[in-house]
Amino acid sequence: xxxxxxxxxxLIAIVAFIAFSFLLSSGGQQRAAFDxxxxxxxxxxxxxxxxxxxxxxxxxxxxxxxxxxxxHTMMAKFPDQPTEExxxxxxxxxxxxxxxxxxxxxxxxxxxxxxxxxPQVRTRSSAATWACHVHNEVNTRLEKxxxxxxxxxxxxxxxxxxxxxxKAVATTKPxxxxxxxxxxKLEKDGGLTRGG
Length: 196
Ligand SMILES: Cc1cc2nc3c(=O)[nH]c(=O)nc-3n(C[C@H](O)[C@H](O)[C@H](O)COP(=O)(O)OP(=O)(O)OC[C@H]3O[C@@H](n4cnc5c(N)ncnc54)[C@H](O)[C@@H]3O)c2cc1C
Ligand SMILES: *[C@@H]1O[C@H](CO)[C@@H](O)[C@H](O)[C@H]1NC(C)=O
Prior knowledge:
Blueprint: H1 3-36, H2 42-46, H3 57-76, H4 84-100, H5 104-116, H6 124-141, H7 152-155, H8 163-169, H9 190-193
Helix pairs in contact: 3-6, 4-5
The chain binds flavin-adenine dinucleotide and 2-acetamido-2-deoxy-beta-D-glucopyranose.
């Protein structure tokens, strides 16, 4: 092969390499952009809870107290008329909450509870009533007093600010606890899946 031919081939190889790298890197950017829009798969949502057993009873109770408060307050602030996406996000949150809850034995129990009572996310009222119901299921197992779920709207309404904003939207979106809250009657097993 004459030397000229070598040079030409080398040039072609270099150009091809640069073009290929460019394609790869722009493809990479597209993939990175796609990766930020997380759509949790079933295996992510329903995977085994991996936190270790929480031995310290004081810590376990404090954690539980704080976690229930977060969960019930979140339901109280969930939209009355959620979009499909609002509902999907709440449902995903509940399953991820169950998977990641940092008391391992609590998490695994809670995951079983979710199998029996899938989260209801169609309205604020159904979400709040569902959360009250599963909390009562945990209360029963721990032999604690049950909560009257017909009072849930008033109880978590809400003490977490934003009241002025709420007055502004009150005409279109009635608040929990202002008479708009209709407690649902939850059925066992199959009945609940309709709500989710
Ligand atoms: C998902 C999850 C699973 C858990 N699993 C376990 C477990 O397996 N073992 C264990 O030892 N602990 C578990 N815990 C912790 C346990 O539920 C309690 O949080 C903890 O024992 C402290 O109880 P508490 O008496 O402070 O009341 P909590 O049950 O923490 O409740 C806090 C407050 O919420 C109100 N409340 C009570 N019931 C309801 C209801 N149904 N709806 C709305 N509000 C209500 C009451 O005002 C109550 O004082 C779990 C907690 C969570 C969040
Ligand atoms: C449990 O945790 C609490 C709070 O952190 C701590 O004061 C206590 O000593 C712990 N108890 C045990 C038995 O480790």
